[in-house]
Structures are given as structure tokens and as C-alpha cells.
Design brief:
The complex is a heterotrimer of chains A (421), B (529) and C (368).
Chain A (H helix, E strand, L loop, with lengths): L1 H20 L9 E7 L7 H20 L7 E7 L5 H14 L4 E4 L3 H13 L4 E3 L12 E3 L8 H9 L8 E7 L2 H16 L7 E6 L7 H11 L4 E6 L5 H10 L9 E3 L4 H4 L11 E4 L8 H16 L12 H20 L4 H8 L3 E3 L5 E4 L6 E2 L3 E5 L5 E6 L27
Chain B lengths: L3 H14 L7 H8 L3 H14 L5 H8 L3 E4 L2 E6 L2 E3 L6 E2 L6 E2 L4 H15 L5 H13 L7 H10 L3 H15 L5 H12 L4 H11 L7 H50 L7 H22 L7 H23 L8 H23 L15 E5 L2 E4 H23 L1 H11 L1 H6 L4 H23 L11 H14 L4 H22 L1 H18 L15
Antiparallel strand pairs in B: 1-2, 1-5, 2-3, 3-4, 6-7
Helix pairs in contact in B: 2-3, 3-5, 4-5, 5-6, 6-8, 7-8, 8-9, 9-11, 10-11, 11-15, 11-18, 11-19, 11-20, 12-13, 12-14, 12-18, 13-18, 15-16, 15-18, 16-18, 19-20, 20-21
Chain C lengths: L9 H5 L2 H24 L10 H26 L7 H19 L12 H5 L15 H25 L4 H20 L11 E2 L3 E2 L2 E2 L3 H27 L1 H18 L4 H27 L1 E2 L6 H14 L5 H20 L4 H15 L3 H12 L1
Antiparallel strand pairs in C: 1-4, 2-3
Classes of the chains: A alpha/beta (421), B mainly alpha (529), C mainly alpha (368).
């Protein structure tokens, strides 16, 4: 009894002591540490793994050109394992232990919300590369993905246009979480402003990982008899395949009821049987199929990198919107650091605003001087049989982001810039 | 003058070939270049001319097989380009662009193709064309073609369909008798589109004549009655279809858990392995037997069965064997195995989902009525689950292995006393249960994602089905899956998917508390039961 | 072991003098040494303990308390719950409600209501949010909410004499049902995002090293205090009845005991401890969302306990520290191998270490 407890307590003590005496890793001289915070395991690994790889590629590229301020970038990759509290823990580790100058990461809104307090407290800098619901503007974050007005609203406008089929009725279908909810809220208000009444809008949510869309497709079918109908889908990655399969098998063709999705891109269609999807739409700020010299080079670089590193995707290297956004983000940060002459977060933040970069989407995109979002062009593409997209509509030029949607009550009079520290 | 001669010659050739020729370069250009409005104008002209020669070109156009360069139009076939009118090989300029069709364009072209096909000599082609006109928006531009086709049509089914298409168009005719006849015609329909069309005619700015109005009201009633009947059948079908998936997923567990009492939390991962086996077989077929690709699924069944049975037997030998009698430990160990298998698949195949294609004979659907469409893949899976059930029933009740399995389940010691090799039976039975999970995986690969966490979505439901049915009872498992499937589909219609799922889970929990032995109780006496 | 005819005093009953000495030593490390290393020593000192470590150990201590709760029902009473994540999350949500109200008008919309309610167009707090602005009430709720659910569920389950694996499976079904419920935005707990972006606790800003250290010390005190309380319980007569339920429930019934009451009592008590652990967890990690109720998380709790050694209490603590420490390390050093390791740990522990690390220590001790 006696010695048992002695041993027990001793082990507990050792653990505590080991923890106490561990010292923070010292940065090597002459490098700038850059954090990469994407899930490499768990449910989100499916989407986020490539973002880690594209970030590493961009960093390699910058280093090959001599780095930033004469120093090489040193990536610190951690795996928050699709576990939201672990995101906060890893963010704290990156900021307080590894002392990274900037972090590129997060995909889901909840992971961003989870790390936000840490970035604010420790005054870090986060570049967030994924389209999201808006309603947020933080001093420590730069958003290189689309706000709702850079993706959702143009897509719906297109569906209402003659070429998009002149839809009069809308099904807003999504997975039950914040991004679909907010997007649909904005869209509903937008549709109201276009004279479409509530009885012509059907809003449905399914749980995460939902895989049986029989009832919902039957409902859409019923709903679609009331007039030209379009479906706006914010269904989360995994559930899309069963949804589209059901749609195809139930005989709802894209010509009858077009579906526009905001979360289906090249990577999501990888290895998916695209037959039932052909003709359905997606709205993004970048498609791999865009034809311009910058994109050709970007694709070539990525293919070469995937091959050189033996990535599982090397057989069929794909690029997509969040990858492009990551690429833009890292390059803009680099330019900002060079402008500021330091990696000090307080000096880099003002320098990021107004940065311009010739992006693979074929435009020179600009970081808004004030609101921490990119001005981005919008493309609407139709799914082709090979999993690529045919661009059927594009905006005349980059569109300024509205993180505070004018369609959400309570957003009026919100400042279009983050509160200062 | 320079263009005139060749044009004349071309025209002469065309005239010789078929009498009503008008399809030429200019038309092809007008159909492919410019904005949607001008292209649709060109299309309507083609329809008006009833020009069947344009058909091949239109089909290429809708199939994204047309490229343009300036005003020149090319039909592309593989890497060869041909002239759309003459069919002669042409050099494809490097700046040639795909013709991009919006959904509106696609709709119009599809309608035009259907209208033009009505004059095809092949009955199947005409039927398909009539169906597509009936379901799509047939507008006035197609009326002459439809009328002409109806006059010539001999087949009663197609004639009826065309009659309906005409009625759809004529509903707005200025002639009252035509309208009345159209309404009467439409009352026979069972399509929700028709109902909607009729109801819009009842709006103030629609029909004014009281007699026609009364006819419309009656017609709506008739269509409605038919529709709600079909809706009910449809709902039951979706319920049965969900039930068949639950049943397939749970059958293997009914053996490993129900009969052997092993809590196999890795059951879902065995299904996942079955689905990945299907994927591998599919790729092998694609690479080595592309001609027989349609039948890869048949070959995948034994492969998936053997692979998962092998994995299952290995698990039993290496791990579970040492844990018999400690069911809670089994639960934890199999949880570990499930994590391990998931990560293994991630390492081997990547974290992304892999694509498993439906073979041709499983895509599409049979349409019993416009509002009742039953997808082939669902029908096949229902049949498949019945077949697997039969297979299992046969194995368990008619074979020596089944006899031994039941003997070991009912009284292990006694079975061993009379010479049943219990250890080997355990391995075989677990292998059988795992193999059936593999078969379920093949079925699941046809309706959803194939990814490392495929199994996670099903495992809780599987246990629910087996526990609800009563442990060790096949009939109970069948009833439980049917019950859960149909109830949750009906609930989903009322409350939405999320609440329905919660309610079903709570229902199961409550049910088990009221009746811990499940629907069917195992007979026997034991204080520890 | 304990001499029943001649019961020892309370102190001696719990731990022997060396044990107590080590207990107080741990107490000193967590409540004196760590604060000094973190707060007093300058940041560049070799012995300085960074905030990262404080946050990490604080989080693991919450898990350790949760593991203690699990050990009471599984290790001592033989009831394997695959739903302890629910109670943990309920406690976390109850306290999270208080933290959300402490944000006051500092949210994105500067409204009386939390941002997610503004967003759902709600005009007032739903009834179950009533009174959660009070710290005291929130703390009561932290204990009562899990207790009420456990009591309700446990009463029906134990009355129907559901046990063993059956019980485990229906607790898992319950977890999934509640997780789906909390994922819904209309349920009123922030949906998938849950609660986050807390600002204050009892009027103090939550994101300062000082507040964090207070939370850390509170957690350590709770953990060690809970260890003593539970040690008291398991060395009492009540504790022996629990073990009798685990080892031979039928025999216990035949000797005239009604196991229902005992099971229900320990089950509910365990749920309350789990709730308390959740309440301590939320302000330290800064987020609570329905992911905590995922069935996998609840199974992991059982693994911590199994790895450390069931039915020893201290084993639960050690298991929680080992597994979670390994998780933090693996997910940084070898992200791809973490699940292999965890899976292997499940299998190897059940196969070769039925008594966990404590069993190993015991073995080493008897050999020497």
C-alpha cells in the first residue's frame, strides 16, 4: 500500500516536472517561422491536407527566390486533427512556443472561432483561406476566401437570369451549421429584395454526414412543379455524393432543376463518379480550368511539387479555390513583410492592406486597404464529365467583399474595418 | 460569286440526299456562336424547318463536342475534328474554343432534339423523345412538329403522350373547345407539372370561361388523388430502401454480436473494407477488362466477401480469441481495431474519398408515373439484401456449419463435449459475419461515399437494429430494420432529417428500456440474462 | 488490507503516511511550484514554464477528473458508460451559458443576447437560459443538469436491469442523439460552433495569465480533492457494495440488497463529477461544442481509465495524463501515426495489460 502510492504519486510528479522544465524551442538563427494549422487527420483531413501541401510549396518557392528579408522561411506544421479545442491548443503552441511570425490555417468556421481568442490574446496573425459566412472582422485575421457577396449572391443572380434558367423558386439546402445558415439567411433576404416570396423558398438542413437524401430529393421534386426551380446547395463535402447520386437517379436533370453548390470544387469531385453531376453549377473565385498564363504556371508548379514530394495526389494533381487562396495569402504576407521591413505583427498588419498580387484567377487581386478581405472575381462553372468546370459566367472584375452583409439586420452601420487593438 | 458555285453544288448534293434540307455552315455557326438569344432563334428556325439533318450536329452540340474558332465551327471526335456539314476532316485551329452551353441552352437544344426525333423510324427513339417533351417544357415552337408527328404516329402509347404534350400547349389556346378537350386530356395525367399548370389557369388572369373552369377543377381533383396515392407508395419505397441498407449493414452484426456475443465496434470498418475492395476491383476491371466493366460489381461480391472474411478471421484469431467472456474488453479492443483499420486505409488510399462508379444497369430509374420514379440502384439493393438474407438463412439452418454455429451459441460446453470444434467454429462464424459486412460494403459503395470513415456513419444504427430486433434473432433483425427504415422516413417527411434521427434514437433507447430483450426474446432461463 | 473489526482513522484509511506525503507534494507542485515557474520567473529563464504548458496541463487535468468519474462507474461498479462525454459536455454547456452572458454587450452585434441568438433572430433568451447570468446558479446547473439526465436515464435503465454491453450500447445511442440535438441551431446552444469567444469570468478578463493560473490551480485542487473524496467513497461500506455489484450482482441481490439504488447513486454522482470537469474545461480551452459528445470521445475516456488501470482511481489520473500527453506529442511529431498508436494502445492494453499501468507498477513492486 505504502510504496504503491509512492510510485503512483511519483509518476504524477514526474509528468508535472517534465512539463515544467520543458523549454520553448529556440528559433534557428536566420529563419522566420511560419505556422501551418490544417487538420491532417480526422474528418477534415479530406479537404485540409492539400492546403498544407500547397502552403509548403509556396514557402519552398519563396525560399528558392531568397526568402523574405534575406531570411529563409521555416514552416512549422502541426495537426489539430479536426478537433476544435485542439485547434486552440495548437494555435497557442505555434504562437507562444514556436513563436511563428504568421499562421496559415483553419477551414471550418468553428475551428476559426476556436483559435480567434488565442490569436487576439497573443497578438498573432492568421490567414484564413476558405470561403465563409462573413459576420466577422478581426484585426488579427486576413480572409483570403470569399465572403457571401463574392460567391453566393452572384450565383443566385445568375440562376435568376435568362441564361441560368430564369429560376423563380429556390431550394436552400444545407448541412446544419453556421456557414449554410448564414448564407441562406443572406440569400433569403436577397431573394425577398428581388420580389421572391417565402412560399417560393424552401429551406432544409441535414445533419453532418447525412447520406440518405431520398426524402429531400422527393421534396425538391414536388417543390419544383410549382415553377422553374433552382437548388442552392451548401451541403458539406461528404454528403454531396449521395445527394447528387440520388438527384441523378430520381431523374432530376440539371436542365430541369439546376443545383449550384458553394462547397463542391475540383478536390471534392476527385474520384467521384461525375456522371450524375454534369451540368450542375458551382460558384467559386477560382477554377482549375481557367485559361491564363498565371494559372498555367501555378498548375505546373503544383504538379511538379506533388510529383517531387510523392504526394498521393501526384497521379492527378488538382488545384482548387482554397489552394489558390492559400497561395495568394502567403505571397501577400511576404510582400507585406517586405514593405514593413519586419515580421512584427503590429507593423505587418497595416502593410497587408492594399497589397496586390497577380493571382491564378487571371486578375490582379488586391487586399482591401481596410476590411482585411480580398477583392476577388467570381466565376460560375458547370461540372464537366472529367470533374473540371466549364466557366459559364464571370464577374467583369474583382468584387469587394462585404463581411457585414447588407442583407442581415443588425449589420447596418457596422464599420468596414476591424476595431483597433 | 466565288462562294456561290460551291454552295450551289453543296445544295444540290443535299437536296439529292434528303428532300427538306436546310442545314448548312451558316446554321451551324448561328447555333454555336453568339449569345443565347440569337442561338435559340437559330434553333427555332431549325425546328420550324423540321430539319432532321441537324440532329447529329445538335447531339454533338449538347454533348460538348463542338468547338469554334471565329465563325468556323468544328465537330470534335476524340482528337479529330470534322466539318459539321460535309463531315470532312478539318484542321482544328489552336485557338479553337469549346462551345459553352448554359442550362437554358441545353434545355432548348434537348427540346429541339426531342422534337426532331419524333419522326424517327425507331419506336424506342420516338418514345424517348415523346417522354422528354412531356416532362420538359414543350412550347409553341414545337407544336407543328408534334402535331405532324401525332398524325403519322401509329403506336397508341406514343400517340397518347403526344396528345398530352399537345394538350399542355393548347391549354392556352383561344378556342374554347380546344381548351376543354385539352383539360379532359390532362385529367388523365399523373404528373405534378400538369396539376401546377392547371392550377395556374385557375388564377384570375387565366381561364375565364366557367365551363372550362369547372372542368379544370375536376381535372385537378382527379390528378391530385392519383398524386397522393403515388406519394404514399413513394414514401413506403424510400422507407423499404433505407430498411434494406440497414438490414444489410446489420446482418453481419446479427451473427457476430447476435449469435456469438462479440461486440464488434470494427464492424463498420469491415463494411468500409468491402467498399474499398469494390473500388479496387473496379479499377482492375477498368485497366484490364474494360469490355466487361459493366459486370465489375458482380466480380466485386466474392472478392469483398473473401477479403473482409479474411480480415475478420485474422481479428478473431489475433485479438478476440483471447477476450471471450470479457465482452466490455472486446468492445474496447475492437474500437482500437477500428481506428487502426481507418488509418491503414488512409495510408493506403489517401484521406480523400475514392470514386466508385455505378455500372450502367444500376444508374437511372424506372418511372411508374411522372411522380413515382424508382431508382434502379435502390431496387437492386433491396433485391440484394433479400438475397443475402436468404443466403444467411440457408447457411444457418441448412448446413453443417450453421448447425455447429447454433450449437455453440446455445450451449458451448455441450457442443464441445459432442465433438464440435468450437474454436474453429468461432473463427468461421466470425469470418462469415465479417464477410457479410463486406457484402454490405459493396452495396453501400453504390449509394454513397467510399471513404475511410464510411463505417462510422453506420455503426450506431447497426447496433440499434440488432438490439431492437432481439439479440440472436434473424427475423427480429429483419423486422427491426424494416420498422426503423419506414418509421424514420415517415418522420423525416414530417419533422426534417435531424429531428427524425434524434426521435428514432430516443425511441430505440426507450424501447429497450421497456423491453430489454428486444422484439423477439431469446428463449432460455438465466438469472444473468 | 483494512481491518474491519478495528477501523482505522479517516486519514489512515485513505492513504498511509508516505501516500499523504506524496499527495501533499503533488499539491505543492500544482498549486505552488507551477504558479511560481509560470508567473514569477522571467520568460527567458530556463526554468520558466510557458503558458502553453499551463494550458495543456490544465486541460489534461480536466480530462483526469473525467477519468476519475469514469473509474467510479466502470472500474468500481462494472458499468461501462459510453456516454460520459454527454455529462462532461452538459457541465461545459451549463458553465458556458454563464460565460456567454458575461460577454455582455461586447459581442459582434453588441446586443443583450449572444451573437448566435441575434443571428437566429431570437428576441429573448429561451426559458432554459433563465438565471444563467448568475455564477452561483450556473455552478448549480453544472452539477444538476448532468445529474438530472443521469438520474432519469439511469432509473429506467437500471430498473429494467439493463447491464453490461447493452447498457454501453444504449448510452452510445443517447450520446449520438444528444450530439445531433446540440448540433441543431434551433436548440439554442450555438449549433456546431457552440460557445466561444468568452471575455470574462466573474468580471475578470478571461485571457490573462493571472486568470488562467487561477483556473489552473482551481482545477488542480478539484482534481486532488476529488481523488480524496472518491478514495473515501471506495473505502467505505458503500464502496464495497459497489464492488460487489461489479463482481456478483445476483449474489448481492440474494443477500437482500437492492443494487438499483446503489447503481443509481454512483451513476448520478459520477455524472456530476463529469459535469464539474466540463465546467472547468470550458474556460480553459475557450470553446465548447457538440463535438465533445461524439461517440468516439466517450470511448476514449474509457481508454484513459483502462490504460491507467481500472478500479484504482490514481490509475485513471495516470491514464488521462499518458494518453493525452501522447496525443499532444504525436499530433505534432508524427501526425500520421497518431491513430495507429491510439488503436494499438486500445488493443494492447486490453490484451496484455488488463490492469493497466498500475498493474505494471504493482508487478514491478512485487518482484523487487
Amino acid at each position: 500500500m505504502n510504496r504503491k502510492f509512492l510510485l503512483q504519486s511519483f509518476s504524477a510528479l514526474t509528468l508535472a516536472a517534465a512539463a515544467a522544465f520543458a523549454t520553448p524551442a529556440m528559433a534557428e538563427d536566420g529563419t522566420i517561422k511560419v505556422g501551418i494549422l490544417h487538420s491532417l487527420s480526422g474528418t477534415m483531413a479530406i479537404s485540409e491536407t492539400v492546403l498544407k501541401d500547397v502552403a509548403l510549396m509556396t514557402i519552398d518557392e519563396i525560399n528558392a527566390k531568397g526568402g523574405v528579408l534575406g531570411k529563409k522561411l521555416e514552416p512549422v506544421v502541426v495537426d489539430p486533427a479536426s478537433d476544435w479545442p485542439l485547434f486552440a491548443e495548437k494555435a497557442r503552441q505555434l504562437l507562444s512556443k514556436d513563436k511563428v511570425a504568421v499562421t496559415f490555417g483553419c477551414w471550418t468556421s468553428v475551428s476559426r472561432k476556436s483559435v480567434l481568442p488565442v490569436f487576439k490574446e497573443l497578438d498573432g496573425l492568421l490567414f484564413y483561406p476558405v470561403q465563409y459566412e462573413g459576420e466577422e472582422l478581426e484585426r488579427n485575421v486576413f480572409y483570403t476566401g470569399a465572403a457571401p457577396n463574392q460567391q453566393a449572391i452572384p450565383a443566385v443572380e445568375y440562376l435568376m437570369s435568362k441564361d441560368g434558367g430564369g429560376a423563380k423558386r429556390f431550394v436552400l439546402l444545407g448541412t446544419d451549421y453556421v456557414y449554410p445558415r448564414t448564407t441562406n439567411k443572406i440569400l433569403r433576404a436577397f431573394l425577398h429584395s428581388k420580389g421572391i416570396t417565402d412560399e417560393n423558398i424552401m429551406e432544409e438542413y441535414t445533419p453532418f454526414g447525412h447520406s440518405d437524401y431520398q426524402t429531400i430529393v422527393a421534396n425538391i421534386k414536388k417543390f419544383s412543379t410549382g415553377g422553374k426551380t433552382a437548388v442552392v446547395s451548401t451541403i458539406n463535402g461528404d454528403s454531396n455524393v449521395p445527394f447528387y447520386k440520388e438527384l441523378g437517379n430520381a431523374g432530376l436533370k440539371a436542365t430541369d432543376v439546376p443545383v449550384v453548390a458553394f462547397s463542391v470544387g475540383e478536390e471534392e469531385l476527385r474520384g467521384v463518379d461525375t456522371k450524375p453531376l454534369v451540368g450542375d453549377l458551382a460558384a467559386w473565385n477560382y477554377f482549375m480550368s481557367l485559361k491564363n498564363p498565371v494559372n498555367e504556371e501555378f498548375k505546373k508548379k503544383w504538379a511538379a511539387y506533388a510529383k517531387a514530394k510523392g504526394l498521393p495526389s501526384a497521379g492527378k494533381p488538382l488545384t482548387n479555390d482554397p489552394m489558390e487562396a492559400t497561395y495568394i495569402g502567403i505571397n501577400m504576407w511576404k510582400q507585406a513583410v517586405e514593405k514593413a521591413g519586419t515580421t512584427d505583427v503590429d507593423k505587418v498588419i497595416p502593410a497587408v492592406g492594399g497589397q496586390q498580387f497577380a493571382a491564378p484567377d487571371g486578375f490582379t487581386v488586391e487586399m482591401d486597404p481596410k476590411n482585411h478581405h480580398l477583392h476577388k472575381p467570381v466565376f460560375i462553372g458547370e461540372v464537366k464529365a472529367d470533374g473540371q468546370f466549364n466557366v459559364v459566367w464571370k464577374s467583369p472584375g474583382p468584387i469587394k467583399a462585404q463581411p457585414w452583409s447588407p442583407y442581415i439586420p443588425g449589420d447596418e452601420g457596422k464599420k468596414d474595418e476591424p476595431d483597433s487593438k | 460569286m466565288r462562294h456561290l458555285l460551291p454552295a450551289l453544288i453543296g445544295l444540290a448534293i443535299l437536296v439529292l440526299c434528303s428532300p427538306a434540307q436546310a442545314f448548312d455552315q451558316a446554321t451551324a455557326t448561328a447555333l454555336s456562336v453568339g449569345d443565347s438569344d440569337t442561338r435559340i432563334d437559330a434553333l427555332n428556325k431549325v425546328i420550324a424547318a423540321g430539319d432532321a439533318a441537324a440532329l447529329p450536329f445538335l447531339e454533338k452540340l449538347i454533348g460538348d463536342g463542338v468547338k469554334t474558332s471565329g465563325d468556323k465551327v468544328f465537330v470534335v471526335d476524340g482528337d479529330k475534328a470534322v466539318d459539321p456539314v460535309t463531315g470532312q476532316a478539318a484542321e482544328l485551329p489552336s485557338d479553337a474554343d469549346d462551345v459553352v452551353n448554359s442550362n437554358r441552352m441545353r434545355n432548348e437544344i434537348g427540346g429541339a432534339i426531342a422534337a426532331l426525333k419524333l419522326s424517327s423510324p425507331d419506336r424506342a427513339v420516338r418514345l424517348e423523345a415523346a417522354q422528354s417533351l412531356q416532362s420538359g417544357d414543350a412550347d409553341e415552337s414545337k407544336l407543328p412538329l408534334v402535331k405532324a408527328a401525332e398524325g403519322k404516329e401509329k403506336d397508341p402509347q406514343i400517340r397518347d403522350m403526344l396528345g398530352q404534350v399537345e394538350a399542355n400547349i393548347e391549354l392556352t389556346s383561344s378556342d374554347k373547345s380546344l381548351r376543354l378537350a385539352a383539360v379532359k386530356m390532362l385529367a388523365e395525367s399523373s404528373s405534378p407539372n400538369v396539376k401546377e399548370m392547371l392550377s395556374t389557369r385557375l388564377a384570375p388572369d387565366g381561364e375565364t370561361d366557367p365551363e372550362v373552369k369547372a372542368a379544370i377543377t375536376a381535372a385537378i381533383k382527379a390528378v391530385d388523388a392519383r398524386l397522393s396515392r403515388y406519394a404514399l407508395v413513394g414514401q413506403i419505397f424510400t422507407g423499404v430502401s433505407l430498411a434494406s441498407i440497414l438490414l444489410l449493414a446489420a446482418l453481419g452484426l446479427a451473427i457476430t454480436y447476435g449469435l456469438m456475443g462479440i461486440i464488434n465496434m470494427a464492424h463498420g470498418e469491415l463494411m468500409m473494407i468491402g467498399a474499398y475492395s469494390t473500388y479496387v476491383v473496379q479499377n482492375l476491371f477498368r485497366a484490364y477488362l474494360p469490355d466487361a466493366f459493366q459486370f465489375y460489381l458482380v466480380a466485386a461480391l466474392p472478392v469483398a466477401f473473401l477479403v473482409t472474411a479474411g480480415v475478420g478471421m485474422a481479428i478473431e484469431r489475433l485479438v478476440l480469441r483471447h477476450l471471450y467472456g470479457r465482452s466490455l474488453e472486446t468492445l474496447l479492443a475492437t474500437c482500437g481495431i477500428s481506428l487502426f483499420l481507418m488509418q491503414l486505409v488512409r495510408t493506403l488510399f489517401g484521406a480523400q474519398n475514392v470514386g466508385v462508379e455505378n455500372p450502367e444497369w444500376m444508374s437511372g430509374s424506372v418511372s411508374l408515373a411522372a411522380s413515382l420514379v424508382l431508382p434502379y440502384n435502390r431496387i437492386v439493393i433491396i433485391g440484394f439484401s433479400v438475397a443475402v438474407l436468404g443466403f444467411m438463412w440457408y447457411l444457418l439452418t441448412k448446413t453443417r456449419l450453421g448447425l455447429f454455429v447454433r450449437a455453440v451459441t446455445q450451449n458451448r460446453t455441450m457442443a464441445r463435449c459432442v465433438g464440435v470444434p468450437t474454436a474453429r467454429i468461432d473463427t468461421m462464424a466470425f469470418g462469415l459475419g465479417s464477410g457479410i459486412a463486406g457484402l454490405a460494403g459493396v452495396a453501400l459503395s453504390q449509394i454513397g461515399n467510399v471513404g475511410p470513415d464510411l463505417g462510422q456513419h453506420y455503426i450506431v444504427n447497426c447496433f440499434m437494429v440488432v438490439v431492437l430486433g432481439g439479440v440472436g434473432q434473424l427475423a427480429g433483425t429483419v423486422l427491426a430494420s424494416l420498422g426503423l427504415g419506414i418509421v424514420s422516413k415517415f418522420l423525416e417527411g414530417v419533422t426534417g432529417a435531424v429531428i427524425a434521427e434524434i426521435m428514432v434514437l430516443v425511441f430505440v433507447v426507450v424501447f429497450i428500456q421497456r423491453r430489454p430483450q428486444g422484439l423477439f426474446a431469446m428463449t432460455g432461463r438465466s438469472a444473468e440474462a | 488490507m483494512i481491518d474491519h473489526r478495528n477501523p482505522p482513522g479517516l486519514f489512515a484509511r485513505l492513504y498511509n503516511p508516505t501516500g499523504w506525503a506524496l499527495f501533499f507534494a503533488s499539491l505543492a507542485v500544482f498549486c505552488v511550484l507551477v504558479p511560481i515557474l509560470n508567473q514569477v520567473l522571467p520568460a527567458d529563464s530556463l526554468l520558466h514554464m510557458s503558458d502553453y504548458w499551463v494550458a495543456l496541463i490544465g486541460k489534461i487535468m480536466c480530462y483526469a477528473i473525467l477519468a476519475l468519474a469514469m473509474d467510479m462507474v466502470w472500474g468500481y461498479t462494472g458499468i461501462l458508460s459510453l456516454g460520459h462525454g454527454i455529462f462532461f459536455a452538459l457541465g461545459g454547456y451549463a458553465f458556458g451559458m454563464y460565460l456567454m452572458r458575461e460577454i455582455g454587450h461586447d459581442g459582434v452585434y453588441h446586443s443583450d443576447l449572444p451573437d448566435f441568438m441575434v443571428f437566429l433572430d431570437w428576441k429573448a433568451y429561451p426559458w432554459y437560459w433563465k438565471g444563467t447570468g448568475s455564477f452561483l446558479y450556473a455552478m448549480i446547473l453544472v452539477l444538476l443538469a448532468p445529474a438530472a439526465l443521469a438520474l432519469f436515464f439511469g432509473f429506467f435503465a437500471f430498473r429494467s436491469r439493463i447491464k453490461g454491453v447493452y447498457f454501453s450500447i444504449i448510452t452510445q445511442a443517447l450520446t449520438v442523439a444528444l450530439m445531433l440535438l446540440f448540433f441543431r441551431n434551433e436548440t439554442g446552444f450555438g449549433g456546431n460552433n457552440g460557445f466561444t469567444d468568452f471575455k470574462r469570468i466573474l468580471g475578470h478578463p478571461i485571457a490573462t495569465p493571472g486568470t488562467r493560473m487561477v483556473l489552473f490551480v482551481t482545477t488542480a485542487l478539484t482534481m486532488l480533492g476529488m481523488l480524496l473524496v472518491l478514495r473515501y467513497v471506495v473505502t467505505s461500506k458503500f464502496g464495497r457494495i459497489l464492488m460487489a455489484i461489479r463482481d456478483a450482482e445476483s449474489r448481492l441481490m440474494f443477500t437482500g440488497y437492492n443494487p438499483l439504488l446503489y447503481k443509481l447513486a454512483i451513476w448520478t454522482f459520477s455524472a456530476m463529477i463529469a459535469g464539474l470537469a466540463g465546467a472547468l474545461y470550458v474556460p480553459q480551452v475557450g470553446i465548447i461544442n457538440p463535438g465533445e459528445m461524439a461517440p468516439g470521445n466517450s470511448i476514449e475516456i474509457a481508454i484513459w481509465t483502462a490504460v491507467g488501470g481500472r478500479g484504482t482511481l490514481i490509475g485513471a489520473l495516470i491514464g488521462a495524463f499518458i494518453v493525452n500527453g501522447a496525443k499532444s506529442w504525436f499530433t505534432q511529431a508524427f501526425p500520421d501515426y497518431w491513430l495507429y498508436f491510439l488503436g494499438a494502445l486500445f488493443v494492447l492494453t486490453t490484451l496484455f495489460l488488463p490492469k493497466g499501468v498500475m498493474g505494471l507498477i504493482d508487478k514491478a513492486r512485487t518482484r523487487s
